[in-house]
From TrEMBL:
Alphabetically ordered keywords of this record: Membrane, Transmembrane, Transmembrane helix
Name listed for the protein in its UniProt record: MFS family permease
Keyword Magnesium: no
GO molecular function per UniProt: transmembrane transporter activity
Organism: Micromonospora parathelypteridis
One protein family per Pfam: MFS_1
Transmembrane region(s): 46-68, 99-120, 168-185, 214-238, 244-265, 272-288, 360-380
Length: 413
């Protein structure tokens, strides 16, 4: 645990992780809050609720690179304050909007969502050394799992005990607190030794959007495609067994396993290639479909859970190392977009597999999607490593060339 103590001892790191957890928990629960409002507050169908959720998700996916580029050019505080105000207006207005206006407003709110996750990753890259970064990103991925466990559950409980309108206001308030808190902390977006490099200006896209970066983004997409599919496969399996009420327990077991796996992996002395972690995650996900009831399903998802946070953390580390300082915000925004796209695709993909076969086919489809992304990332990384060394070539380990290169210290970007 020494590595975690060193990370948390970095000035400003512990407050940043704490404040961003508030924002990320609320943002993780935003789709659930809108779904409950449309179904319970407007008394519309789940299909209508899915339309609002899709509009919000599409906005988040498109807005990631845009907000990242604005952070690169205009600074962090102005972007955080502007997006926080947009969220306040949106969530205060949710109970008063007709469905058609809510659909449009949800897309705009997603487009200008407070970029808490992307800012946290960019700040970690700027505030930590190469030796500390893997443990720091492990903590960041654990933070994401905690928000996943807590956020939707709190929203569901509050919607059942108070009202979906009040829940919407609460989500907006939490996003405001988190966004304003990060703006107050104003963490650095570039390390001190990167200031001179950043002053040169934005490097051309062809310089950094090469095979290695595409490999990292592909694996980011594949990881969330798998995870989104697993969530649906869990529900389908338990519904067939007549035990759908136990889905929350299975999801909590999955999340807790991920937290444990992230903490263990971040404390290890040597990293593993991203493609290998994602490939293993895909492999252990496929046999989870053999479970027929909730106790066995709890056991079956532990393997996937243990590999989830390490995979997400390693992907984040890879992207941050490959990103040049002048465009790091845009690049991390692209990562967020890739992950949002994966979440959006995973459920429909697995849903088709379940409809055409059995619930176990959902786990198989999710696992195979992860394996396909891992293989693609590995092949792209090998292609990149075979070419002439580039300014960011030192970080191939994160994607998959050689695990023992993980302690090389040049800042990628």
């Amino acid at each position: 645990m020494t590595s975690y103590r060193q990370v948390l001892a970095v000035p400003g790191m512990a407050p940043l992780l704490g404040v961003s957890l508030i924002a990320r928990t609320a943002i993780t629960a935003d789709v659930t809050a809108l779904t409950l409002y449309v179904v319970l507050g407007l008394d519309l169908s789940y299909a209508a609720a899915g339309g609002v959720a899709a509009a919000l998700t599409a906005g988040v996916a498109l807005g990631g690179p845009l907000l990242g580029r604005m952070i690169d050019s205009r600074g962090l505080r102005s972007v955080l304050l502007a997006t926080s105000m947009v969220q306040v207006v949106f969530w205060l207005g949710v109970p008063f909007l007709p469905y058609a206006f809510l659909l449009v407003a949800s897309f705009v709110a997603g487009l200008l969502m407070v970029p808490a996750q992307a800012v946290g990753r960019q700040a970690i890259a700027a505030m930590t050394t190469a030796e500390q970064r893997r443990a720091a990103f492990a903590l960041e991925s654990v933070q994401g799992e905690l928000s996943y466990i807590v956020g939707p559950a709190v929203v569901i409980v509050c919607a059942a005990t108070v009202s979906p309108e009040v829940v919407a206001w609460g989500v907006g308030a939490a996003i405001l607190v988190g966004g304003a808190g990060i703006a107050l902390l104003n963490p650095p977006m570039r390390a001190e030794d990167e200031a001179d490099v950043a002053a040169v200006g934005r490097p051309p896209r062809r310089q950094w959007l090469g095979a290695e970066m595409i490999a990292a983004l592909t694996m980011a997409f594949g990881t969330t495609t798998l995870l989104s599919g697993v969530d649906l496969a869990i529900i389908a399996t338990l519904r067939e067994a007549g035990q759908v009420s136990w889905a929350a327990v299975v999801v909590v077991v999955f999340g807790v396993s991920s937290v444990v796996g992230g903490l263990i992996y971040g404390a290890l002395s040597r990293p593993l290639p991203t493609w290998l972690l994602l490939g293993l995650l895909g492999l252990v996900t496929i046999p989870a479909g053999l479970a027929q009831d909730w106790p066995w399903l709890c056991v079956a998802v532990v393997g996937s859970g243990l590999l989830t946070a390490p995979t997400l953390g390693t992907v984040a580390d890879a992207v941050s190392r490959l990103a040049p300082p002048g465009v790091r915000g845009e690049v991390i925004g692209l990562q967020s977009s890739a992950q949002s796209a994966g979440f959006a695709l995973g459920a429909p993909l697995v849903g088709v597999a379940i409809d055409l076969s059995v619930p176990a086919g959902g786990f198989a489809a999710a696992g195979l999607a992860g394996l396909a992304a891992a293989l693609t990332g590995h092949l792209l990384s090998r292609r990149s490593s075979a070419r002439t060394a580039a300014p960011f070539h030192a970080d191939h380990v994160v994607l998959g060339a050689h695990p023992d290169h993980g302690h090389r210290s040049p800042r990628a970007g």
